[in-house]
Amino acid sequence: MTTLAELCIAAVAEAFRDEREMIGTGIGPIPRLGVGLAKLTHSPGLMMTDGEAYLVEQPVPLGPRGYDDRKAAGYLPFSRFFDSAVWTGRRHAMVTPTQVDRFGQTNLSALGGTHAQPKTQMLGARGFPGNGIYHANSMFIPAHGPRVFVAGEVDRISSPGYNPARRIAGGNYSGIDLRRIVTNLCVMDFGGPDHAIRVVALHPGVAFAEVQEATGFDLIDAAQGETPLPTADQLAIIESLDPHGIRHTIFKDNPAAERSAA
Amino acid sequence: MTLDKRMSAADIVGRLKSGMTLGIGGWGPRRKPMALVREILRSDLTDLTIVSYGGPDVGMLCAAGKVKKLVFAFVSLDAIPLEPWFRKAREAGAIEVLELDEGMFQWGLKAAAFGLPFLPTRVGLGTDLVELGGLKTVQSPYDDGEVMVAMPALKLDAALIHVQRADWRGNVQALGPDTYYDEWFAKAADTCFVSCEELVPAMEDSYPADAKANIFERCFVTGVTEARGGAHPTSLPPDYGWDMGWFKTYAAAAKDPGDWAAVADKMVGASEAEYIASVGGMEAVGALPLPIF
Question: Quick count: other Cβ atoms within 10 Å of Cβ B208?
Answer without folding.
Answer: 9
